[in-house]
Structure formats: C-alpha cells, structure tokens
Amino acid sequence: MPAKIAEVHPGIYEIFLPLPMRPTIINVYLVDCHGAWALIDTGMNTPDSVATLEDAFSQVGIRLEDLTVLFGTHHHVDHFGASSTIKRRSPQVTALLHQLETERINRMLSLGGPISERPEAMEFFRTNGFPIEKHPPEAMRPMWFGTDMYSPLDRPDRYLNDGDVVPVGDRQFEIVWTPGHAPGHCVIYLRKEKVMIVGDHLLPKITPHVGLYPSAPTGNPLGDFINSQMKVQRFDVELVLPAHGGVFHDHRHRANQLIEHHRYREAEMLDLVRRRPKCAFEVASQVFGDEERPIAHVMAATFETLAHLELARIEGRARRIDRDGVALYQAV
Ligand SMILES: [Zn+2]
C-alpha cells in the first residue's frame, strides 16, 4: 500500500493511514530525533493500515524495527489499536500511554458478550430513557469491537504523566494531560520547535466526541474537556498537528471555538428543559434530530447530551430528578 506522507516541519512526518469508517483517515506522526525515532499514535490494526505504515517508514528510509519510542495520545482504536503489533515487530520500542487509558483498554478487552447480558449497561440505557429493547444488540457495537482491528497493548512500558518531559535522541517531548475526549488523553508538546501534536483534542473541522458511557457512567468529561481547552492555550505553539484533518496554526482560536460550541449547545439544551424535565435521550432527539438515523449515532448523541446535562447540573444550571428509575434534567 503506497503511503502518503508529508514533512510538516523539519524531521516531522505526517503519515495518513486508512480507516474503515468515518473519519476515513488518521494522521500519525513520525519524528526523526537524530539517532532515534518516535511515533505518535499507530492507526488501526488492519493489514491495510499496518502495510501503509511500513511503506511510510520505508519512504523516510527506516523500518518498523528502527523505532525507539511509541506515544499513544489515547486508547481509541484508530490511535492505539495497532500498538501490540508494533511492539511485537519492534520489541525494543518503549511504548508510553497514560494510566487511565490503560484502564480503559483493559475494561474494553474484558467486555465480552452482547450488551443485553451486561446488567450495568442495560441499567445505564434505561436510566437515560434510551429505548434499548427496540434495537438488536449487534447493532450497538462498532464493527471493530472484539476483532483483531483493536489490538492495543494492555500494559505500556511506562505511563505518561502530566508535565513529563521524555527525551528521545536530541528532542524533548513534553506531556500535557488533556482529559475530556478520553480520561487520559495527552497532547505532546515540542517546546523548542513550537509544535503541538494534539491527537483528538483539537481537531480543525470536527468537534471531538465527549460523552458519558455505559462503561464510564460518572464524572464530568465535558467540564474536563473545557478545562483542557484552556490548559493548552498556556503553551506557545506555531504548528498544530491533529489526528484528523489538516495541520493548522492558531491553537488558541480553535480551542476557544470548541469551548463556545459547547456553551452554545448547553444553552440550547437547557432551553428544552426549562418548562418540563426531560431525559437525556429526549433532549438528544430534539437537539440532534429524531429522524431515522443509524442507532450508533443516536447512542453517541445521547452520551454527548448526558455529558452536557451533567456539566450543567454540576455547575448549578440544572437539577436531576429521578422518576420511576429514569433520570430527568430540568434547568434551574
Ligand atoms: Zn479518539
């Protein structure tokens, strides 16, 4: 598979890897550290993607076996799904990931069986008013779930922590913990180069998904996401390297747009629950449209709506009322 690559900064290569779903491409980054090589994210573990990655390496004159360090921005299938394949091919690689992402990986790998056999998941759907019984459980899981396409390392060689500086060859990779899209999501900052590799935290065209899920039903991921958008603005950046979409320059502008987008969405949702309390599913249907859509989209919309309603509750703009086992939210 001939790979498309671009040298976006001296010695920093953007590699476009294919995905069998939307978005259809993930960008991973290979960094020449002069005597050592670092890779940020892996793509999915499909033969197509791994072959494309190998071709990209050969275009810059190295082999997978020459890799020194592998950073994972987060545990998602398109970011860390091929990490065990890379580690098997290149046992000398030091693989790094945040501990919270490793916990997610182990949770995901332990989820066998259909959703209908997981009482806590069924409870989560019922509580949020989602008509789970109307949908076949097979339709509820992504196509890669439980397959080889997701072959993450279940233990990295080291955990990434906020503020870590990881030296690789003559470069310094600073770790900035940016929870929100995933609880242990990290972006990687090259201070001297003024380059930030942002994973899914700051995408130029799309809004990264932030939600509460059956497997992670509590917490305040949207509040975390907004705080993480403020956090990255403290860094001096000239080039932003995202996992999806084109490279861009103004990280502060994009971070503020994302904060605004979520504030607007929240206001829209609170308007809907001013007169009468509603469950997350009902609010999602009104905000995102209730025409026939793939069930996976309806689920994602419900998870995202719940994250908004919980943020509003935690910050005192909404309250939660439990009625017959269903959680209803109302603006206050
Ligand atoms: Zn992701």
**Which structural class best describes the helix and strand composition?**
alpha/beta
Cα distance spanning the termini? 56 Å
CATH class: Alpha Beta
The CATH architecture term is 4-Layer Sandwich
Largest sheet: 7 strands, mixed
Question: Portion of residues in helices?
Answer: 25-40%
Per DSSP, the total helix count is: 9
Per CATH, what is the topology?
Answer: Metallo-beta-lactamase, Chain A
Output the helix-strand order. EEEEHEHHEHHEEEEEHEHHHEE
Bound molecules: zinc ion
Assign the CATH superfamily: Ribonuclease Z/Hydroxyacylglutathione hydrolase-like
Mean pLDDT: 94
Strand order of the largest sheet: 1-2-3-4-5-6-7
Count of discrete structural domains: 1
From the alpha carbons, calculate the radius of gyration and give it in angstroms: 20 Å
How many beta strands in the DSSP annotation?
14
Beta-strand content bin: 15-25%
Low-confidence segments, ≥5 residues, pLDDT <50? none
The backbone outline, from C-alpha atoms, is globular
